[in-house]
Amino acid sequence: MWSHYADELVGAGFTPKEAKQNIERNKKTLFDNDIPNDSQRIFDVLDDDVAIGSLWLAMREEGNEGNSGEWFIYDIVIDPEHRGKGLGRSTMQAAEEYVRSEGGTRLALNVFGPNTVARRLYESMGYGVLAIGMKKDLT
User: Which of 2, 31, 48, 65 shows its CA 20 to 30 Å from the CA of 14?
Assistant: First the structure.
């Protein structure tokens, strides 16, 4: 899970050191001794009872008032040999159904700019852009 995220961070322009720092920050916030805290949900993505990927969701909290109704997709991975078969879309639909079943009212995610395949999928499913971060190396 973390190595995939590190690869995506580096692919999006982070240095390996920055990617490592980002991961360490997330581990401290989202995990207790390498065990997901109570707001995290990590699922295997199955195709004919074979694990072919993973989905990591989390409830977002709003101050001390508890769950704001928003959930966040921290990671969605479909193994490369299973891509292009609609499994990413069906996994996203399952994530939406799960969030609704838990009383969630919104599902958010971050997608890195170079990941055009994922961006097209999310846009085709009605996800809108909230911000665009841009960067230019000057060295």
Answer: 31
Q: Which residues contact 112 (CB under 8 A, 6 or more apart)?
A: 8, 9, 11, 12
DSSP 118-131: HHHHHHHTT-----
Cβ atoms of 90 and 70 within 8 Å: the answer is: no
Give me the helix-helix angle, 2-11 and 16-30, nearest 10°: 140
Residue 64 has pLDDT above 50, yes or no: no
Measured between alpha carbons, how far is residue 88 from residues 17, 46, 50, 139 in Å?
Answer: 30, 11, 15, 37
Q: How many CB atoms within 10 Å of residue 32?
A: 11
Tokens matching residue 60: 């977002």
Q: How far apart are CA 21 and CA 27, in angstroms?
A: 10
